[in-house]
Amino acid sequence: MASSRAVPNLMFRRLRGQRSPGEFAALVRRAAREIGEQVACDARYIGRVEAGEIRCPNYAYERVFLHMFPGLALADLGFSARETVRGRASRGRTPQASDTYNSNNGTNSTYSNEESDVLRRAFMTSGTVTVAAASLGLGSLPGTEALRSELPRQRVGASEVGAVEEAVRQIRLLDDRHGADGLYKRAAQPLRAAYALLDAGATTRSSTAGRLATGAGELAISVGWLAHDSGRLDDARSHYAEALATARVAADPALEAHAFCNTSFLARDAGRHREAVRAAQAGQRAAGQLGSDRLMALLTLREAGGWAGLGDRGGCERALSRAHTLFGRGPSDKDPEWMSFFGEPELQTLEAQCWSALGDWSRAARHAHRATALQNPHFARNLALYRAQLASDLARAGAPAEAASVGEQVLDVLDADVQSSRIRVMLADTAAVLRPLRRAAGVAPFLDRYAMTAATAGA
Predict the structure, then answer these.
(1) Cα 260 from Cα 240, distance rounded (Å)
(2) Which end of the chain has fewer CB within 10 Å, C or N?
């Protein structure tokens, strides 16, 4: 088994020094923000590196580590060469720290080739179970063509579980940058592979089985989110339910809280506002034992969104007040890995959505503007989403020129960098509000450009 061959990474451990794994993970996340990267690093990830389970980091972590330790190569950090880990020759030189980010145009100079490589490895489209396993980086599993008869006899170890966890990270990274529309169908393949491994059921340790269940559940949520963001709400509901069932069977409160969080969000978007409130409250009950104030804050914001959809201003305001109190307590090592997206910009945009639902457009626009001002521009999808929210609120708040200007900024990245049905729907709504105001300054050019974009998308 791969886990028995793991060699502890003593070099990396020495670099951590006297810091705890959680403290060092926080430094990694901060270094990532400095270069416009996003990694969901936590104490467990650091532990896996030091234990030798992660022999070579993915490209995002590589860039961050080289930024943290200038002048050192991966080998100096105790990692193996990528080609020896992946069993293939390198297709080019190892990206250097100087390649990471070009401040003149806001793009990664090595990014296009790397992302294509990620997509080939993580989201292969063949329908066989063997290739599904390969899509998780698992290599060839003997006998997987005869899934029912052979796979239950396979031993699932740390390398397979690690591949599932890495697939989750890759999906989140690519969604943050580009949106869901181009990823959803490709992401379904590694999800099937993960559940095939879970169904095999044969592991050497209960801890490995627990990690596999958590990884499969988190992957179901990630794929569900891709369905959600690309407008496939029924598919998303199914994936979230699958994750919730996995959480219940595995007795995993963290996974359960995450599944309820996304279920609440989906229910709100589908107009099932009472369900949104109940799911958010169920998520809070599950999260209560985890000790993460930020997770409780997000779940309380989900509850606030449900109350707003029901038109209950008092219930919404009480939930928002609780959410701000919880958020103000700051992050901690107990915050789940998947919550790396939840910072001040997301808090502001979720509050903006509450005021929008209650019809307080000016107040909504103020919060949406804060979200756009605070968001790191490197994460194009989130910035486009926040701007789409702002344009919608401005249009209804009686500021058509400002709404059109912000809408143009969204169009600048739509299709070229971002593919999200959610953002398209929001822009369509804004355009509908602005059409009667076509003679206002700047509105006609936006409407004409939007109409051309919509026609191209529908062709």
Answers:
(1) 8
(2) C
Segment 102-125 mean pLDDT: 35
3-state secondary structure of 414: strand
**3-state secondary structure labels for all residues of the chain:** CHHHHCCCCHHHHHHHCCCCHHHHHHHHHHHHHHCCCCCCCCHHHHHHHHCCCCCCCCHHHHHHHHHHCCCCCHHHHCCCCHHHHHCCCCCCCCCCHHHCCECCCCECCCHHHHHHHHHHHHCCCCCCHHHHHHHCCCCCCCCHHHHHHHHHHCCECHHHHHHHHHHHHHHHHHHHHHCCCCCHHHHHHHHHHHHHHHHHCCECCHHHHHHHHHHHHHHHHHHHHHHHHCCCHHHHHHHHHHHHHHHHHHCCHHHHHHHHHHHHHHHHHCCCHHHHHHHHHHHHHHHCCCCCHHHHHHHHHHHHHHHHHCCCHHHHHHHHHHHHHHHHCCCCCCCCHHHHHCCHHHHHHHHHHHHHHCCCHHHHHHHHHHHHHHCCCCCHHHHHHHHHHHHHHHHHCCCHHHHHHHHHHHHHHECCCECCHHHHHHHHHHHHHHHHHCCCCCHHHHHHHHHHHHHHHHC
pLDDT at 366 over 90: yes
- 8 A C-beta contact, residue 286 and residue 257: yes
SS3 (DSSP) at 408:
helix
For the question of whether the overall pTM of this predicted structure is more than 0.90, the answer is: no
Predicted confidence (pLDDT) at residue 150 exceeds the cutoff of 70: no
The CA-based diameter of the chain, rounded to the nearest angstrom, is 71
pLDDT band per the 50, 70, 90 thresholds, residue 134: very low
Q: Please identify which residue in the block is written with the tokens 């109190």.
A: 325
Neighbours of 108 (CB within 10 A): 23
pLDDT digits (tens, 9 = 90+) for 275-326: 999 999 999 999 999 999 999 999 999 999 999 999 999 999 999 999 999 9
Q: Which residue has the tokens 């939007």?
A: 450
Quick one: which of 325, 287, 289 has its CA closest to 304?
325
Cβ(392)–Cβ(407) below 8 Å = no
Percent of the chain clearing pLDDT 90 (strictly above): 42
* Helix segments in 310-420, DSSP class H: 313-328, 344-357, 361-374, 380-396, 400-413
Cα–Cα distance for residue pair 95/78, rounded to 1 Å:
17
What is the pLDDT, as a whole number, of residue 284?
Answer: 97
Place of tokens 């591949």: 163
